[in-house]
Amino acid sequence: xxxxxxxxxxxxxxxxxxxxxxxxxxxxxxxxxxxxxxxxxxxxxxxxxxxxxxxxxxxxxxxxxxxxxxxxxxxxxxxxxxxxxxxxxxxxxxxxxxxxxxxxxxxxxxxxxxxxxxxxxxxxxxxxxxxxxxxxxxxxxxxxxxxxxxxxxxxxxxxxxxxxxxxxxxxxxxxxxxxxxxxxxxxxxxxxxxxxxxxxxxxxxxxxxxxxxxxxxxxxxxxxxxxxxxxxxxxxxxxxxxxxxxxxxxxxxxxxxxxxxxxxxxxxxxxxxxxxxxxxxxxxxxxxxxxxxxxxxxxxxxxxxxxxxxxxxxxxxxxxxxxxxxxxxxxxxxxxxxxxxxxxxxxxxxxxxxxxxxxxxxxxxxxxxxxxxxxxxxxxxxxxxxxxxxxxxxxxx
Length: 397
Fold this sequence. Notes:
By secondary structure, this protein is an alpha+beta fold. The protein folds into three domains: about 1-20 and about 110-245, D-amino Acid Aminotransferase, Chain A, domain 1, CATH 3.30.470.20; about 20-105, 2-Layer Sandwich (Dna Ligase, domain 1), CATH 3.30.1490; about 250-395, 3-Layer(aba) Sandwich (Rossmann fold), CATH 3.40.50. It is built from 13 helices and 18 strands. Strand 10 and strand 11 form a beta hairpin.
């Protein structure tokens, strides 16, 4: 589950991570009130207006702007709220901005120049250990840094039993070229950040940039936080932070129906049971010259109502030109699935306006195929994987 920047910062702050303070608003008048409150609390005279959407690169799309007075806060907020923000991490249509964060200006003059760093905490799946990735090249896309200057990216792996050790936090501060008060600030920042990552069962923290201010404070200017959905039962207060407006509405509907659905960019809808079979089915579609439009796992039950719901969700994607149903009858008998498909097809009528290919294997597979063949419906019933691939290729050509 992804969080907005302001939500992530609020959580980090509870763990002792110093943050760029700010107040969220959903209209331009509220933004002005937020700016006034921020000035009273922090003394800031300039403000940063930041679009709150689940996407990086907001500044490149015009979603992060500096306001030097209250009038500019109102004007800029009015421009950003309601816009479709297009960034390198959104679709061509962009994402609608429903709220902005009015944040304090932390790039104030002082005894030294502000410095920006990159830092993230995530799981290294190759080693099964948490890892802190960091770089002196803050404020840039980490992918660009990795491609052009990979020697400027450092990593520090943490033993899951021992946790982050003080020498590791000091090593990170040293590799970032810090000394004196800034060195001590960074070690505190890294320690608090890692404690927060573990404490909330996160799957990703990305702070870009981490800022060393002109008076040697170290703080999070941005915060990209992703929580592990499987651990949300332990953090019900965090589960309430989910913003469904930021998620694919089809995926939200599927989740509410108890279906495991992930939207993709292809033209062949998939309905399967089991993640492994789903991956194999998507490979099959690619080999047949198509592209999977989704990952949809109906699970261990496939009655008429569930199948119909799955069909309707798949067909909400206008790019779908065919549907492939690939079910293994283990927990559920194939003939029951076949009956569910027939009943759902009859109930939906003309709503199914693309070719439907059905492959059922497992318990009572023979009876299932006979049932579908005898239904008189425009369903292509196949037995083998290769038959399914050939039929996908045929209906797409």
